[in-house]
User: Which sequence fits this backbone?
């Protein structure tokens, strides 16, 4: 009803505007596209809509207005008026003096309409069960509890698991002189709703709940730019304020009514705290002789939490006194972030050019060390770790040097040779420093009118220095494991994009990307990560009234991960317990479109088709893996049971649209659109069929699932232009 | 362009995604995966994150000076500060997420627990083959897998949050 009222008001407002525009000024133009929509949907409505509001009934799809008056330009736009995904925007400009825009936008995120939870949420951030329910479940025998917990979930009402972003923003740019400009931009985004989250009471009992989202992000930017001769200066200020109104969640234990040592009646989870990041930046760019330019950019900002509280040691009242208090009550988190870029570009002759870049980035985490001599895991028992736990923030310094030398002989192609050295220093990780040396060769054909090719080959070697095995040992990890984002790695990548235009208005595009990542010293962890991507497509505009395009691509991603299934003791060093996951993602996709316009000078017909078929497989291999075993790995027969193969994960999306618009005259058109959307999914942990077969035991899940859908949506439209 | 096909930006095709897909076909394909940002719904476009004309950051990103900076410019709840931090989330979100889209929940580059097991091979609870026999019965793999328990995986401000279960 709210939608219809808002739409009716807008329509009433629009009609006189359109008539007025026709009568008074030919410089005012615009259009409105409105009508009635209906859908036939079978399956997961939430996944079909996801970020959209496709509800049945009246719609005002787009409103556009453009005007010019006394050198001023105005553009007004509205999309999906009065719907959950509505957007309004207004732009204005007086060229050479002032321009600006303002926008209001809503982005829904509908995750599920079939989630269930027995928790009541009378207080934000508290997920409660009645004492009677907890007492009843606590009193049941161990054998009787799972059925009772699942009956409790099944008896709960379904609810929508969703959130929405509400974003308002605007910007102004003022040019006091032709050589200078001032810019300001402000944006505030409020997000509310919920998202799936979990809480654990130990290794064998978890609960899920719809964790609340209630935060606001405000961003402000201001900058001034001035040009003086061959120099350009810019100075800027950035401010970002994040305010989270829910910084902890309490969730009841369905199996325990009162706190005792070892088993809490509820658990507590920390959520992100509010924070502020303020910064300044500056840039100087100098035009140099011989078609050269040097640009320096520097930035510095500080990120702090806004008196973020460190939560109490536990929510369990039975052990709270024994647990004591945290070493300090507030987070006192702070990070200094600084960056510096130096770019040099030069084209001293038509035969040669150079582009060199130096980039420095430093994230200096100044979080004061936090030491915990006691811990209450899962809000259960108070324990004293063998050695105190230390929280120390991660810091990171990057220094990247990169240069390309391009040779453009008087021929059909240009050759570029490039080198990059990317050095990363980190604290509290397994390597103190990693250095990636990258060599690349690029070949570009210059415009021949018939063929254009860009090919790039890149070889990179990343090596770590200052390996700290204790970082792994303290985490009970295998000493031979390497985190793949730091691990020694040889990388080869080749990409080619070619376009052939044998006849006017037709193009055949072919591209390929091949990548090989070899983590050559990782006994455990990711061993390799490879991809092969191929695509081919044709675009054509055989006449002014016909445009078409069709493309097909195939993607193949493969990785091997090595592991060892081992408890502490003799198993830890037993190579017979080694295993691997050979993972593969294979994707076929098709994108096609056909536009036929002005058919019989009246009809515009547009059709599109998208198809995406994904198959992911996870194959377990026990023992060594042929051809991919490192020399340091002892090859012995496996003592692990033979794994039962997992079914492939399937995800197929098919979308097609047909859009016909009949132009009655220059001002009015009618149209009909049809959209077909089909999603098929098979996921061994998340699809609805898999979750029906779960032996959920004492675990209280939301039953957030991936479910298929088929949707047919039809729009009947009237388009008014003026 | 004398006859642009787009509503704004004088593009030769109707949307930015179509223009960018001319070369970056694999990225356009990822937008059609089940886990995606609202690009195909028209709420975001390539230039929401990238400035194709140039940038002071990496990957032609508009915001900040790193990949993580860019991501937390919208997902500010992930920027910290945190008492306990998950190191790769400070280093770069793309270690675990593919921002262009993926067939996995939350745009993860692989399905948990396989993703987590790429780095975690610890004892207690040991790195396990979660095969077809365990999928329906192990809380460590079914539903949302590891993050059902390790739900504060980006970072925690709880004194017992060092394993991201609080």
Assistant:
């Amino acid at each position: 009803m709210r939608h219809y009222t808002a739409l009716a008001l807008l329509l009433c407002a629009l009609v006189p505007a359109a008539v007025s525009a026709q009568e008074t000024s030919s410089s005012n133009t615009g259009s409105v596209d409105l009508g009635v929509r209906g859908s036939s949907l079978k399956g997961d409505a939430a996944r079909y809509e996801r970020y959209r509001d496709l509800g049945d009934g009246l719609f005002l799809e787009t409103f556009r207005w453009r005007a010019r008056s006394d050198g001023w330009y105005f553009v007004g736009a509205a999309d999906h008026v009065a719907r959950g995904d509505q957007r309004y925007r207004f732009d204005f400009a007086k060229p050479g003096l002032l321009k600006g825009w303002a926008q209001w936008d809503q982005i829904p995120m509908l995750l599920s309409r079939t989630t269930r939870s027995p928790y009541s949420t009378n207080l934000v951030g508290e997920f409660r069960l009645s004492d009677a329910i907890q007492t009843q479940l606590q009193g049941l025998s161990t054998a009787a509890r799972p059925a009772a917990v699942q009956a409790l979930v099944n008896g709960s009402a379904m609810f929508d698991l969703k959130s929405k972003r509400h974003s308002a923003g605007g910007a102004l740019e003022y040019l006091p002189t032709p050589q200078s400009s001032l810019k300001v931009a402000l944006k505030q985004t409020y997000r509310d709703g919920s998202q799936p989250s979990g809480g654990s009471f130990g290794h064998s009992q978890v609960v899920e709940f719809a964790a609340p989202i209630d935060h606001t992000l405000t961003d402000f930017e201001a900058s001034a730019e001035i040009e003086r001769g061959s120099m350009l200066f810019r100075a800027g200020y950035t401010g970002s304020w994040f305010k989270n109104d829910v910084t902890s969640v309490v969730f009841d234990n369905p199996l325990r009514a009162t706190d005792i040592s070892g088993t809490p009646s509820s658990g507590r989870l920390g959520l992100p705290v509010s924070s502020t990041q303020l910064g300044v930046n500056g840039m100087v760019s100098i035009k140099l002789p011989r078609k050269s330019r040097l640009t320096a950019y520097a930035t510095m900002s500080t990120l702090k939490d806004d008196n973020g509280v460190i939560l109490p040691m536990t929510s369990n009242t039975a052990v709270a006194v024994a647990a004591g208090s945290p070493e300090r009550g507030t987070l006192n988190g702070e990070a200094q972030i600084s960056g510096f870029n130096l770019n040099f570009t030069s084209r001293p002759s038509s035969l040669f050019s150079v582009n060199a870049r130096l980039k420095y980035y430093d994230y200096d985490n100044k979080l004061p060390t936090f030491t915990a001599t006691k811990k209450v895991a899962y809000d259960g028992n108070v324990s004293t770790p063998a050695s105190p736990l230390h929280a120390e923030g991660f810091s990171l310094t990057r220094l990247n040097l990169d240069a390309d030398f391009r040779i453009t002989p008087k021929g059909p192609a240009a050759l570029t040779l490039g080198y990059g050295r990317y050095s990363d220093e980190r604290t509290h990780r397994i390597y103190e420093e990693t250095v990636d040396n990258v060599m690349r060769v690029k070949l570009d054909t210059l415009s021949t009118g018939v063929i254009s090719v860009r090919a790039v080959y890149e070889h990179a070697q990343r090596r770590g220095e200052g390996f700290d095995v204790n970082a792994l040992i303290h985490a009970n990890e295998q000493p031979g494991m390497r985190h793949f984002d730091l691990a020694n790695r040889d990388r080869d990548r080749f990409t080619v994009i070619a376009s052939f235009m044998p006849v006017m208005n037709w193009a055949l595009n072919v591209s390929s990307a091949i990548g090989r990542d070899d983590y050559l010293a990782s006994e455990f962890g990711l061993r390799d990560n490879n991809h092969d991507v191929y695509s081919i497509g044709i675009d054509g505009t055989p006449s002014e009234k016909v445009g078409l395009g069709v493309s097909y691509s195939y993607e193949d991603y493969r990785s091997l991960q090595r592991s060892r299934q081992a408890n502490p003791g003799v198993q830890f060093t037993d190579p017979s317990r080694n295993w691997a996951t050979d993972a593969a993602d294979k994707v076929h996709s098709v994108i096609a479109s056909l536009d036929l316009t002005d058919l019989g000078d009246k009809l515009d017909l547009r059709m599109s088709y998208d198809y995406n078929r994904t198959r992911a497989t996870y194959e377990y291999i026990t023992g060594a893996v042929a051809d991919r075993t490192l020399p340091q790995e002892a090859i012995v027969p496996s003592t692990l049971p033979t794994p039962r193969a997992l079914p492939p994960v399937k995800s197929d999306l098919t979308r097609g649209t047909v859009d016909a618009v009949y132009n009655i005259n220059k001002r009015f058109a009618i149209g009909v659109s049809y959209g077909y959307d089909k999603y098929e999914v098979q996921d061994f942990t998340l699809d609805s069929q898999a979750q029906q077969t779960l032996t959920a035991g004492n675990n209280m899940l939301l039953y957030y699932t991936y479910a298929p859908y088929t949707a047919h949506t039809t729009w009947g439209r009237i388009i008014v232009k003026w | 362009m004398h006859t642009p096909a787009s509503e704004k930006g004088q593009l030769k095709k109707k949307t930015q995604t179509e223009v960018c897909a001319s070369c970056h076909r694999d990225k356009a394909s990822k937008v059609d995966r089940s886990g995606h940002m609202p690009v195909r719904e028209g709420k975001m476009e390539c230039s929401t994150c990238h400035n194709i004309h140039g940038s002071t950051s990496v990957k032609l990103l508009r915001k900040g000076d790193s990949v993580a900076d860019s991501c937390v410019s919208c997902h500010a709840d992930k920027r910290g500060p945190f008492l306990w931090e998950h190191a790769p989330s400070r280093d770069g979100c793309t270690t675990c997420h593919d921002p262009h889209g993926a067939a996995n929940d939350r745009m993860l580059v692989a399905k948990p627990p396989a993703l987590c097991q790429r780095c975690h091979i610890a004892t207690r609870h040991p790195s396990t083959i979660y095969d077809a026999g365990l999928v329906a019965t192990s809380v460590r793999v079914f539903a949302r897998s590891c993050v059902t328990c390790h739900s504060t995986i980006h970072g925690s401000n709880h004194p017992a949050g060092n394993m991201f279960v609080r």
